[in-house]
Specification:
By secondary structure, this protein is mainly alpha-helical. 55% of the residues lie in helices and 0% in strands. It starts with 12 loop residues before the first helix and ends in a 10-residue tail after the last helix.
Length: 294
Amino acid sequence: MMAMYPLVATKDPVAVEAEVQAAYLAMFPEGDKLFVPQAFGWAIECFSGRCQSYQRIDARYHDLEHTLQGTLCMARLLRGRHDAGAEPVFGEELTELGLVAILFHDTGYLKRKGDMTGTGAKYTVVHVARSAEFAGEFLKARGYGAADIRSVQNMIQCTGVNAPLDRIPFQSESERMAGYALGTADLLGQMAAEDYIEKLPVLYAEFAEAARHEKGNPGMVGMFSSAEDLIRKTPGFWENYVQPKLNHDFAGMYRFLSRPYPSGPNAYVQRIEASMERLRSQLAEGKAAVGARA
């Protein structure tokens, strides 16, 4: 494996699809060459408002690019794990289910047609359950069996903040590890983005809308008093929440992103560390936090 990942424009579904297809076929040269294009087509259809009875995505942080960032990271992690010969082995079917799961993991932000109040961000507190339900309905309509649907739903459950991982009814140890890979990719894919810090005010706006919508049970979204408060707490979030989660809850799956494995540089972690150092410097200098992206 080469030492660094190629740069991929995560705003471009075609570019991300090509990279995911390359990773998939590197793992399974005889695999279904139509699988990745079909799965991406499904996700784009849903996020574009051409799916079932749902509108196009209108959440500004948890948008299609967010899903593409996670999906790209997931494909790279799965390939790294495959190349490392890790056990239990993820076969072609489980790998495909894992990619479907990450492509659908935030469909819970989609609003049904006729829902004209606010944006899909209002569903932040319940979006994981909504995503699992959405994926179940979508995949059942396309002929997926009950066990495969449950597998996708179990993996999606891993993305919940403080999700009780020990209570998710995984059907196998390999499915559990695939779920941990998905949870890892969801965190690293977004946090390693070049504009992650700049988008934090947009994330706060989603949290604020969710807190207004879920007045009786705001959960984590009620922890921040302002965008500036969220920004100030972000380095601590990385150190005290994300890193322990990656290392312990998700069994260190992020290490399969190191190139070469196991001792090479981990580009995702390095980019996040660089962003956190930049943010710490800004905060130490008393600079106004960064503004929201228009």
